[in-house]
Write a structure and sequence with these properties.
Dihydrodipicolinate Reductase, domain 2; about 375 residues; 11 helices; six-stranded parallel beta sheet; Rossmann fold; nine-stranded mixed beta sheet; 2 domains; alpha/beta
Length: about 375
C-alpha cells in the first residue's frame, strides 16, 4: 500500500509538471484592446509586458490624440494602432478583445466581436441599461462567444476568502445582511482624464453617475454572495451634492436590495473623503469584514473577532489577463463575479435603483 501511495504521488507530481510545461509552451492568447477613453486602460497595458500567456496584438482607437498619448507613454509602435476592428483584423489575427470604451459602446463592441467569434472582456459595468444588457446576452448566446466583466474587486484575495468562509465553511450561518462601500472623492477630484470624464459624467454614455460607476461593485458582490439570486425589491436614494462639478448626474447613491431572508446596502459615492472598496457580511451567527483587499476580520460564534490573511490568488483567478487567457483557451467557463449571468442581475439592480430614485418608491422585481 505504501509503494502504491508513493507511486501515485510521483505520478501526480509528474502530471502537474507536464501540465505546467504544456501551458508554458502553449502559444500566447492574442488579443486586442478596443478603445482608450476608459482610464483603466492605463493600468491594463503595462500588465501585458513580460507575460508569456497573452500577447497584445493591436489597439483600436480613432482619436489621434489618444493614440499619440498612449504610444508615447508606453513606448508603443505606431503600427500597433488601428482605426477600426475591421482594419485591425485585416492585418493580424486575434482571439479576444479587451474593451476600454464608454459603457454605452459595450453593446456595439460585443456585436462586432460576436460576428467574428471573438471573446470579450469589458470594464464594469456590463451595460448602461437592461435593453443593452439583454442585447449583449443575445449576441453572445447566438455566436457562442464568452463575455467577461472586469471589476477591480474580483481580484481581491479578501473577497474570495470571504466567499469561502461564508459558503464553503458556513462560518457565520445563514446570510442576513451585506454592506458594501465603494467610491472616492470624485473622478474629477482624483484627476481622471478629460476623455474619461467626458463620458463618465454623462447620463447616456455611462447610464448615470456614481450610482453606475460604483453601485455596480456592490450589486456584483452581493449577487455573487447570494449565488446569483435576484432581489425581490430595490430602493434607492440619490443626490447631487456637487451639481457645480457634476451637473448631469448623481454623485451620491444608496441602494437597498431586499431578499426573502436577507438585505443588502450599497453605498456608492463620489464624495468619500478617501478612496474605498470594502465589504461587510453578516450571518445569523457571525460576521466577516473585508476592510481591504488582503485582510479579513472574522467574528465567529462564541469567539472574539480575529484577523485573517487570505490566501494569495493564483492561476486564472490571479488577475484579469490570466482569467481572459483561461476563458479563451476554454480551460474555464466565466463564473461568479465576472459572469454574464451575475452581471445581468447587476444591471437589473442598477436600472431599478434609477427608477426608485426617480419616483421615490420601492421597485418590486417581477
Amino acid at each position: 500500500m505504501k509503494t502504491f501511495s508513493l507511486c501515485l504521488v510521483l505520478f501526480l507530481a509528474q502530471w502537474l509538471v507536464a501540465r505546467a510545461d504544456a501551458q508554458e509552451s502553449s502559444p500566447p492568447v492574442r488579443f486586442a484592446i478596443v478603445g482608450l477613453t476608459h482610464d483603466h486602460a492605463a493600468g491594463f497595458i503595462p500588465g501585458v509586458r513580460n507575460r508569456r500567456d497573452v500577447e497584445l496584438a493591436g489597439i483600436v482607437e480613432k482619436d489621434p490624440a489618444l493614440v499619440a498619448r498612449y504610444a508615447k507613454r508606453y513606448n508603443l509602435a505606431t503600427n500597433l494602432f488601428f482605426s477600426s476592428l475591421a482594419d485591425l483584423l485585416a492585418h493580424t489575427n486575434i482571439q479576444a478583445v479587451a474593451t476600454f470604451t464608454s459603457t454605452f459602446e459595450h453593446l456595439k463592441v460585443v456585436e462586432e466581436c460576436a460576428a467574428r467569434g471573438l471573446d470579450v472582456m469589458m470594464e464594469k459595468p456590463l451595460a448602461v441599461n437592461m435593453e443593452h444588457a439583454r442585447a449583449i446576452a443575445a449576441a453572445a448566446q447566438k455566436s457562442g462567444i464568452q463575455v467577461v466583466v472586469n471589476y477591480e474587486t474580483t481580484w481581491y484575495a479578501g473577497n474570495l476568502g470571504a466567499y469561502r468562509l461564508v459558503h464553503d465553511e458556513k462560518a457565520i450561518g445563514e446570510l442576513r445582511k451585506f454592506v458594501v462601500h465603494d467610491g472616492h472623492q470624485g473622478p474629477q477630484e482624483i484627476g481622471c482624464s478629460a476623455d474619461f470624464l467626458n463620458w463618465l459624467t454623462d447620463p447616456i454614455l455611462n447610464g448615470g453617475g456614481a450610482l453606475n460607476d460604483f453601485g455596480c461593485y456592490g450589486a456584483d458582490l452581493i449577487t455573487w454572495l447570494m449565488d446569483g439570486q435576484r432581489p425581490v425589491s430595490v430602493f434607492a436614494v440619490t443626490q447631487q451634492i456637487k451639481p457645480d462639478v457634476y451637473p448631469k448626474v448623481e454623485d451620491e447613491a444608496t441602494i437597498i436590495v431586499t431578499y426573502p431572508r436577507a438585505q443588502g446596502i450599497i453605498q456608492a459615492s463620489w464624495n468619500w473623503p478617501f478612496g474605498r472598496k470594502d465589504l461587510e457580511i453578516y450571518g445569523k451567527t457571525g460576521s466577516v469584514m473585508v476592510p481591504r483587499n488582503d485582510l479579513l476580520k472574522v467574528h465567529r460564534p462564541g469567539t472574539a473577532e480575529t484577523e485573517v490573511i487570505p490566501e494569495r490568488l493564483t492561476g486564472p483567478n490571479a488577475d484579469p489577463l490570466s482569467y481572459l487567457a483561461a476563458v479563451v483557451r476554454k480551460q474555464i467557463q466565466p463564473a461568479g463575479l465576472s459572469s454574464l449571468a451575475v452581471n445581468l442581475v447587476v444591471v437589473e439592480i442598477l436600472d431599478a435603483a434609477h427608477e426608485s430614485a426617480r419616483t421615490g418608491r420601492r421597485v418590486d422585481l417581477k
